[in-house]
Amino acid sequence: MKHEPKRKGVKTQKNPKQIRIKTERYAAKPVVDMSDDMMELQREIARQQGFDICNTCRLRTPLSEPKCIHCDS
Q1: How do strand 51-53 and strand 60-62 relate by DSSP bridges?
Q2: Distance CA 45, CA 67 (A)
Q3: Residue 36 region, left (φ>0) first, then alpha (ψ -120 to 50), else beta?
């Protein structure tokens, strides 16, 4: 068995594990909607400060008020 030198233009095969890891790094990540989570966090902070955030206009209203003072909803 004679040692044959590599020819130009002939590529060696990579094992599938190396290829998979390389492509996973650049794979698109699932999009997570953070707006609901952020809104809940803002509501918690507003409640701690004595306010409530209106669902309609998203402005702060004191907890002592039964309705929104901005849009009356």
Answers
A1: antiparallel
A2: 19
A3: alpha
Task: Report the distance separating Cα 43 and Cα 53, nearest Å.
Answer: 6
Asked if residue 40 lies in contact with residue 52, where contact means CB atoms within 8 angstroms, the answer is no
First to last CA, the chain: 87
Q: What's the whole-model pTM score?
A: 0.49
Q: Model confidence over 26-47: pLDDT tens digits?
A: 666 666 666 778 889 999 999 9
* Domain boundary assignment for the chain: 36-73
Mean pLDDT calculated for residue range 38-58:
91
- For the chain, what percent of residues have pLDDT higher than 70? 53
